[in-house]
Amino acid sequence: MAKVNKRGNRASQSGHRITRRGLPKKTGGIGLNITGRARRYWKSNMQKKKVRFSDGSVRTMWVRARDLRAGVYDNPNPKDFPVS
Predict the structure, then answer these.
(1) What is the pTM of this model?
(2) Are the CB atoms for 55 and 78 separated by under 8 Å?
(3) Which of 28, 65, 71, 84 could form a disulfide with 45 if both were Cys (CB 3.0 to 4.6 A apart)?
(4) How far apart are CA 18 and CA 15, in angstroms?
């Protein structure tokens, strides 16, 4: 199961960490030179939670912690469901 948020299709993003050498022009140097690019990933804060839907069904899915704090999901009471 991939860590993809179904609500907003949010997944991890990839990019680069850029290493530079030199002194910026605004501080009197001749500019910054790029000396390396390392691959890196940004991962959203995903947590596995049981979510109750409008039809009454409950599913376990990956949700963002930002949405949990905002109260987007109706978190079910764990006492209502047997532990599987």
Answers:
(1) 0.56
(2) no
(3) 65
(4) 10
* % residues pLDDT > 70 (the chain): 82
**End-to-end Cα distance, the chain:** 18
Task: Name the helix (H) or strand (E) containing 62.
Answer: strand 58-64
Q: How confident is the model at residue 57 (pLDDT cuts 50, 70, 90)?
A: confident
Residue 63 has, within 13 A of its CA and on its CB side, a CA count of: 19
Structural domain boundaries of the chain? Answer: 15-42, 45-84
For the domain covering 45-84, report its CATH number: 2.30.170
36 HSE (CA, 13 A, CB side): 6
Q: Is the dihedral of CA 63, 66, 68, 71 positive or negative?
A: negative
